[in-house]
Design a protein that fits this description.
The complex is a heterodimer of chains A (about 300) and B (about 290). Chain A is built from ten helices and ten strands. Chain A is globular, with a radius of gyration of 19 Å. Chain B has one domain. In chain B, the strands form two sheets. In chain B, strands 1-4 form a two-stranded antiparallel sheet. In chain B, strands 2-3 form a two-stranded antiparallel ribbon. Chain B starts with a helix and ends in a 14-residue tail after the last helix. With about 290 residues, chain B is an all-alpha fold. The chains are: A alpha/beta (about 300), B mainly alpha (about 290).
C-alpha cells in the first residue's frame, strides 16, 4: 500500500460529502440461520452516507449472507434494517431500486440476449417517466422517454469507458468489460447506496486499480457497501471496514485500525487466504450454499 | 406454384401460432398446450358475434381482446401458482387447461361443426386464363400475420416495456433486482401470446368449419414449427412455420394420396429435426444453456 492508500476520515468523523444524514444504512443485531445452521449471529454495521464501507472475512465468514440481507434476498431471523431512518420490515428485491439501492452481482449477471446498451437501459428502468400502458399502446408517446433512457444508459457506459461496446452482446466481451457493464447498469439507476459484491474478482492489477479510483469517485454521489477478497483494494478505498469470521463480527473500524487488530490478523490477514477458505469450508459454514445467490 | 402459394399462406398461420408458443416458452419455460383451446374459445366468441349480426371486424377485435384477457387471467390464476416449481407441473397444468377449455367450449357452444366466415373472397385470383390458389383471403391472412409480427418486433425492440419483458425472460432474478416488475411482464407475455394464438385460430378458421377441437392439429403444427426454429427464437418460429407450411403443402400436393400423410409428415419432420439439430435450426439458446 502506498501513502495515498490511507483513507481520509477517522472513526466517527463526518463523511466528506454532505448528504442527507438519513441516507444511511444500519444493520443492527442481524442473525441468519439456514436450517438450524447459524450463518450470522448478532452482526451490526452502519454504512454512513458518502462513505465506502468494506465487508471482509475469510470464505464462509458470512459476508455474502450479510450482503444478501442488505438487499432483501435473505431474510434475517433476528435484527433490524434501517434505511434513511426508516425500519424496513420486509425488503423485497424488486423494491430495492425504488428505495435508491442498487447492487451488482457476484459474477456479472448480464442479460445474454440484450445488447450492452439495453442491459444498462434495464438498470435505468426506474427513471422512466411514461406509464406502463402508454408505453405499451402509444409507441410515439413514449419515444421521448425511450430516448432519455438510451442517453442515460449511454452516459453511464461512457463514464466506465465502455461506450464502444454499446451494440455488442455481453457473451462476446471479455470478462473485465462485462464487469464494467454490470457496474454501469448499477450506477445508471443513480442509487443512494451501491452494494458491490466482489467487483474485483477476475480483474488484473491495473483494472483493479482503476476500479478503486472509480469507487472513490462515485462515493461522492452515493454510499457504497463493498464485499471483496482483495485486501489491497479494500484497504485503499474503504473508509470503514467490518470483519466477519464464522458468522460473527470480530472487528470494525478504519483500515488502519482493522489491520492493527490482532483478532483480524489471527483470523485472516496473517494466513494464506486459500488455506483459511478450505478450513472454513471444512467446518461447514453454509454461505456457499445460501439460496439467495444469483448467478449470471 | 399453386402448392407453394397454399403452403406460404398456411405456413404464415403456423408461424403465428408457433410464435405464440415461443413467446411463452422464452419467458416462462413452459410449453403452453392450452394455446389451441384458448384460441378456439376466442374464435367461438367471434362466431357468436358474427351470428348475431356483428361484422367480421368487430368480432375479430373482440376475439383478440378476449384473447388478451384470457391469456392474462390464465397466467395469473392458473400458471402463477405452479411457476417456480418443477417445470413438468406447469406443463401438465396447461394440458389440463387444454382439455378443460375444450370441454367448456362444447358446453357453451355445443360440439357440432359450425361454418366460420372469411372476411375476403375464397376464389383464387385470375392469372391468364387459370385461377391460382391464391385468394384475397390469403392476402389478408399473410398481411395480418406480417403486421402483427411487425408490431411485436416494434414492441420488443423499441419500447421500455418490451425491454423489460426481454430482461425478465433472460434473467428473472436479476431483472427483479433492477426494479423490473417481473410478474407483470410475465402476465403481459402470456396475454400477448394469447392474442397471437387467437389471431392464428381465427385466420385458420376463415372459410372453414369450427368445432371445439378444431385447433388440435394447429397445436401440433405450431409446435413442430416452433421446435424447427429452436423454441427460443421468434425469428426461428416464423421461418419454421413457413418451412413447415411449404413442406406439408408439397406433401399434400405432389405425393399420391399425400393429404392423408400431412400429419404423419409433420411428425417425421419433427423427429428429423430433433435427431439432427436438437437445438432447432435457429438455436439462439447457446448463451442460455449454461
Amino acid at each position: 500500500m502506498g501513502p495515498l492508500a490511507q483513507p481520509p476520515p477517522h472513526p466517527g468523523s463526518q463523511p466528506h460529502e454532505h448528504r442527507t444524514p438519513t441516507s444511511r444504512l444500519e444493520l443492527s443485531g442481524i442473525s441468519v440461520a439456514f436450517g438450524g445452521v447459524t450463518a450470522l449471529s448478532d452482526v451490526s454495521l452502519t454504512v454512513e452516507p458518502g462513505q465506502v464501507h468494506g465487508l471482509i472475512g475469510p470464505n464462509g465468514a458470512g459476508k455474502t449472507t450479510l450482503f444478501n440481507v442488505a438487499c432483501g434476498l435473505v431474510r434475517p431471523s433476528a435484527g433490524t434494517i434501517t434505511w434513511r431512518g426508516e425500519q424496513l420490515r420486509r425488503l423485497q428485491p424488486s423494491k430495492l431500486t425504488r428505495l435508491g439501492i442498487a447492487r451488482t452481482l457476484q459474477g456479472v449477471g448480464l442479460f445474454p440476449g440484450l445488447t450492452v446498451l439495453e442491459n444498462v437501459m434495464v438498470g435505468a428502468h426506474r427513471h422512466a417517466k411514461a406509464g406502463f400502458f402508454s408505453a405499451l399502446v402509444a409507441l410515439p408517446a413514449s419515444d421521448a422517454d425511450e430516448r432519455r433512457l438510451r442517453e442515460r444508459a449511454g452516459a453511464a457506459l461512457a463514464e466506465l469507458g465502455a461506450e464502444g461496446y454499446a451494440g455488442r452482446y455481453p457473451g462476446s466481451l471479455p470478462y473485465p468489460v462485462q464487469k464494467r457493464v454490470a457496474l454501469a447498469r448499477a450506477l445508471v439507476a443513480e442509487p443512494d447506496l451501491l452494494l458491490l459484491d466482489e467487483p474485483a474478482s477476475g480483474l488484473s492489477e491495473d483494472e483493479m486499480h482503476e476500479l478503486g479510483d472509480l469507487i472513490r469517485s462515485v462515493c461522492t454521489r452515493m454510499s457504497v457497501l463493498l464485499v471483496e477478497h482483495h485486501m489491497d483494494l479494500v484497504m485503499r478505498v474503504c473508509d470503514r471496514i467490518t470483519v466477519l469470521d464464522s458468522g460473527k463480527q470480530i472487528a470494525a473500524g478504519t483500515p488502519a485500525e482493522v489491520q492493527a487488530d490482532p483478532a483480524v490478523t489471527e483470523a485472516y490477514l496473517g494466513d494464506d487466504v486459500d488455506v483459511e477458505a478450505d478450513a472454513a469450508a471444512l467446518t461447514g459454514h453454509p454461505t456457499r450454499t445460501d439460496g439467495g445467490r444469483t448467478h449470471g | 406454384m399453386n402448392v407453394t402459394l397454399t403452403g406460404l399462406t398456411e405456413g404464415m398461420v403456423y408461424a403465428a401460432f408457433a410464435l405464440a408458443l415461443v413467446l411463452i416458452w422464452r419467458s416462462t419455460r413452459i410449453v403452453n398446450f392450452a394455446q389451441g383451446s384458448m384460441a378456439a374459445a376466442t374464435a367461438f366468441i367471434a362466431l357468436s358475434l358474427i351470428q348475431n349480426g356483428q361484422s367480421y371486424w368487430v368480432a375479430l377485435i373482440v376475439a383478440l381482446a378476449s384473447g388478451f384477457v384470457l391469456g392474462a387471467v390464465v397466467e395469473r390464476v392458473v400458471i402463477r401458482p405452479v411457476e417456480g416449481g418443477p417445470e413438468l407441473n406447469a406443463v401438465i397444468v396447461t394440458l389440463g387447461l387444454f382439455v378443460a377449455i375444450q370441454a367448456l367450449i362444447a358446453i357453451i357452444w355445443g360440439s357440432s361443426f359450425e361454418s366460420f366466415p372469411a372476411p375476403f373472397g375464397l376464389e383464387g385470383f385470375q392469372v391468364g386464363d387459370s385461377r391460382i390458389a391464391f385468394t384475397p383471403n390469403s392476402v389478408f391472412v399473410i398481411g395480418a400475420v406480417v403486421v402483427t409480427m411487425a408490431l411485436l418486433i416494434a414492441l420488443f425492440r423499441f419500447t421500455r416495456v418490451g425491454l423489460a419483458m426481454r430482461a425478465s425472460a433472460f434473467g428473472q432474478e436479476v431483472a427483479r433486482l433492477l426494479g423490473v416488475k417481473v410478474g407483470r411482464m410475465l402476465t403481459l407475455g402470456w396475454a400477448l401470446a394469447a392474442v397471437v394464438g387467437s389471431l392464428a385460430g381465427l385466420l385458420i378458421a376463415g372459410g372453414e368449419f369450427v368445432y371445439p377441437a378444431y385447433m388440435d392439429s394447429l397445436i401440433v403444427f405450431g409446435f413442430v414449427a416452433a421446435v424447427l426454429g429452436g423454441l427460443d427464437s421468434p425469428v426461428g418460429a416464423i421461418v419454421g412455420g413457413l418451412i413447415l407450411g411449404l413442406a406439408l403443402s408439397y406433401v399434400s400436393g405432389y405425393v399420391e394420396r399425400g393429404s392423408a400423410l400431412v400429419n404423419v409428415s409433420a411428425l417425421v419432420i419433427l423427429m428429423v429435426v430433433l435427431l439432427v439439430r436438437p437445438g432447432g435450426l435457429f438455436a439462439s439458446s447457446v448463451a442460455r444453456r449454461a
